[in-house]
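User: Hi! I'm a student and our assignment asks us to look at how structure tokens line up with a sequence. Could you show me two examples?

Assistant: Happy to help. In each example below, the sequence comes first and the structure tokens follow. Example one:
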Amino acid sequence: MHRMPPITLEDRTGINTNTDFDDMYDRIFFHVARTPGQTTTKIYEMTIRASRHRSTLPLDKEPIILLDFAPDESLGTISFLKAPSQPSISMGRYLRKTSIFGSSLSRKFFGSDGREYRWNHRSVAGQEWTCTTAENYLVAHYDLKPLDVKAYDVSGNNFIIYDSFKHLIPELVASLIIMRHISQYNL
């Protein structure tokens, strides 16, 4: 049996509101952008690697997901625009704390497949963010570049998504961005 390597999305800049997630095997690509002075972060599914589309920006396509944060950068709404699209939902309802008095950096959400998924910050050595199923199966993890490793023209940060969960990639990218935003703004 031939197993596919996990989707390894290289986070090109490490900046939550302006980056590209490019699979190292050229299978899938996302562009994340926010217009300066605005509070909406847009996620686009691309057909080519970021380094190959820089000269063609601005984008002539519609985003697949909108993350509308409040003017003070507090949580706002998430909108899935790709079919079957859903109505906007508040980020606080979409990504709920795993316990009432627990950390804001431990949250759960229901994927489009109806299963529950959980994000945790620094719960596994070497992983900045870890996503598991409710049954504790590893779904994905976001890893920061080790301090002793040089990175050239990239951030060195990687988002690894295991093959069994590739149907959730856009949702995982969006929920990771929200989780990183929660951490950045101490929400």
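Example two works the same way, sequence first and then tokens:
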Amino acid sequence: MIEHTLFRLERLISTLPSQIDQLSEDDFTTKKAAGSWSKKEILGHLIDSASNNHHRFIKAQYEDRPLISYDQDKWVDENDYQSANKQDLIVFWLALNKHLLRLLQNMPPQKLAKTCRLPNDLQVNLSDLFIDYVDHLEHHVAQLIRN
């Protein structure tokens, strides 16, 4: 299952930046409804997700069941992705995900079984957390590239 998930992440890394780059600035920055995120903010959310999951993937290898959580709406607001440069966001997302891919490709199988706590006190192993990360990424990618 991990091999397939690594493949899925590799595919996103190789295709998503050009797909986002093709979006018009208007499509990328327009909010479809009051209180919703623009596609630019969705990409920012994916950057936050990568950053927070990076912490989980590292800390769970050497700490006993670390708890790492974040308020996704506050992170998007505080990072002010809506006013960020499109290319900067693409490059940042790409660098984070290339790093996560390398990290998971090199992680020994016994470390993939280590656990991490989520805010609801649910305990998940790193393997399942990685699969969930890519599932979450694909969910939001569908929002980014649909017309």
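Here is something you could point out in your write-up. The mean pLDDT is 95.
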